[in-house]
Amino acid sequence: MGMDPQLKAKLQKQRYHLVGEHGGVKICHWTRESLLRDRSCYKGKFYGIASHECLQMSPVVDQCNLACTYCWREPHMDSLELTDQDPLELLYESVRAQRRLLTGYGGNIEVNPEKFIEAQNPKHVAISLNGEPTLYRNLSEYIDLCHKHGMTTMLVTNGTLPKAIENLDVLPTQLYVSVDAPNEEVFNRICKPKWGSGAWDKFEQTIDLLPSLDTRIVCRHTLVKGENMNPEHLAQYAALDNRADPDWIECKGYVFVGHSREVMSLENMPSHDDVLEFANTLAPLVDRRLLDDSRPSRVALIGREKIPLPIPEKIMDFPEDLGIAPPIKHLPLAR
């Protein structure tokens, strides 16, 4: 079964480039900012990623097993299916989509021509965007192909499918697990599992699996004021973080945008100072310290030291027929 036609139309209106039956690519806000104004995403500040060389995609933009109240993306299909699109086709079509989406920047006088050319060949793949990527059955092969093309990978998961993570033969360069609830009651209330009871137990299995995974781990707390960042929640978050023993913890403020505006209110959005206060209180409880923060993204980084992502050895090139934009030839500005 393909994508729901109504959801497909909504995503296309929001400038998603859909790939295959369920995949999708979208130019990130920070990719645009990097090209136009030389500004970097907080992931660049924290982990050394060049925002203009980042491919933001998901193998399943229309499928998720949660219906989180704070999610700003479009709601997903209720009937879920595991997908098995060919991973090499998914990668090449995602890069082709990225190049098409970037085409309009080629004639912009504000864009650095060298950065525009660099952006044609992504060096990093953010496997997040929308949906739950661990529903994609060929995820391990996809990650492996990204690495063979010399790209680092970040996989963002809600952590409720521990077997899918455990069965990955090739792990991402960095694994993000959304730890967005301190306990089962809050989890069921704001994350709203679609598959009935048991999601929290699966999530806890993922938490206990993380210390055994030989890759960089990040626990990310999306903080929603009045919902999951009350003072009594801090010790519970710390207990989960200590079990997971991640390399880093990100405390990121919920933002009142997109679909979430139909569920949340502006009062649910914490200020950056709220986020910093939360992070500074959490850090000693997990024997770590506040390493950095980014006010534009309302995010704070907790850990022991900052370490840039390691670049995998490139052993494959993209095929020449993916279509690449020509070098920029800026026309003189009309006076």
Structure, explained:
- With 335 residues, the protein is an alpha/beta fold.
- The chain has one domain: Aldolase class I (TIM Barrel, Alpha-Beta Barrel), CATH 3.20.20.
- Helices cover 30% and strands 15% of the residues.
- The protein contains 11 helices and 10 strands.
- The protein has helices spanning 5-13, 29-37, 42-47, 87-102, 113-119, 139-148, 162-166, 184-190, 199-209, 234-244, 272-282, and strands at residues 17-19, 23-25, 54-58, 124-127, 152-157, 174-178, 216-223, 248-253, 289-294, 299-303.
- A 10-stranded mixed sheet has the order 1-2-3-4-5-6-7-8-10-9, sandwiched between helices.
- β4, α6 (139-148) and β5 form a beta-alpha-beta unit.
- α4 (87-102) crosses α6 and α9 packs across α10 (234-244).
- The protein is globular, with a radius of gyration of 20 Å.
- The termini are far apart.
- Residues 327-335 have low confidence and may be disordered.
Summarize, please.
The protein is of the alpha/beta class and 335 residues long. Helix content is 30%, strand content 15%.
